[in-house]
Design brief:
This protein is α/β, with parallel strands linked by helices. It has one domain: Amidase signature (AS) enzymes (Alpha-Beta Complex). The longest helix is centred in the last third of the chain and has 24 residues.
Amino acid sequence: MPLYNLSIHEAHDLLSRGEISSLELTKATLGRIDEVDGKLRSFVTVTRELALAQAQQADERIKAGDHAPLTGIPVLIKDNMCTKGTKTTCSSKMLENFVPPYDAAVVEKLNAQGMVMVGKGNMDEFAMGSSTENSAFYPTHNPWDLERVPGGSSGGATTAVAAGEAVYALGSDTGGSIRQPAGFCSVVGLKPTYGRVSRYGLVAFASSLDQIGPVTRDVTDCALVLNAIAGHDPRDSTSVDQPVPDYTKSLIPDLKGLRIGVPEEYFVEGMESGVEQVVRQAVGKLGELGAEVDWGVSLPNTPAALACYYIIAPSEAMANLARYDGVKYGFSAREAENMWDAMEKTRQYGFGPEVKRRIMLGTYALSAGYYEAYYLKAQKVRTLITREFADAFARCDVLVTPTSPTVPFRIGERVDDPMQMYLADVCTLPVNIAGIPGISVPAGFVDGLPVGMQILGKPFSEETLLRVACAYEQATDWGQRRPGV
């Protein structure tokens, strides 16, 4: 097996025994980037010199016997997380040349473990999108079929991990932006409970929905990364002060006594029949592994989640993006008659079409005369959705759904149809509305294209999700397959 296809735990074992060095692993990964990224476009920035320097430091640390599970392992960071001294663009013209003066909290945590950062991942601009076609620079291509999208907005992260351009990655998830592309690329993607991982240094999209999480090749790796990045941070007012367990201890391939619910509302109208068949077979496998499957769970307000999300998220985005005015940092339109003209032109030329669309949606929803009719009503629906999940978890330990209603669609197929694009996240965004954790694991293929299974749990039940995901992974070989790119 090529070094760049190793998992975190496999690489860690080889590094610990001195059979490979971090420098060898990093050079193999950088070589893989050189080989395939011209086709995939997973990266906005490749940090070659930094990675090689960090690899040498990691090797010294390993020789001294002071190394953690992630020491010396190549990682890609989604380009909306601040990295000191390295550009953080959010794949937007607005921040094309922005170099942060500090690291995000998760980057600090990985640095403490001796990470090797090979680059920053391409994404939908400001994380607004479901296909990574909204990047201001170029679209990312799915490694399983270069004519199709990898999902979004963390498409660069999932593509890189699937194709061997990074051993693991960090993504962010506001309405499915880790889980949906993980399903499209046949990797593991986890959105932790809201408040489990610090958002300090994450460029805000929708502050009550955003959460950082791992993208990995298998469930064991996912647990290892979550161990590293979870925990309380006083710099993030929404960070929860709760002990972090060792998530690797939950990785037992035994589901006896576990109650699994399957909400029918997630098998939505228009779902591709092949996707539904794959997910129903995956649920059957969980039953064979000893779980008690309940097909009668209902979440009746699920159909309202899409409308609820596309009022709350754009409203928060509108407020968060108001800071990009061309005055303090980022793109600034210089050819203007006055301050107001400069601000208008900065936003006109600095933001792409999807970002502008969501700013307008949010401005409308929060405007005088419409606030109660739209934003306030959406928050009430959010409460109902959260309560429904709580009621479902009173009778089930986890819920299992499709990650996406379709296989990866073709590049360009939905760019002129925003509603069809928004429907790509119909199975994932209720999770962000309720703030609960969710994980997508590879569940099979339809005509050679990946299908993901999503597992959901009550707040701070990541251990249970990882247990179910691990048991399914151990009983199947879907996650071991690699794209031919």
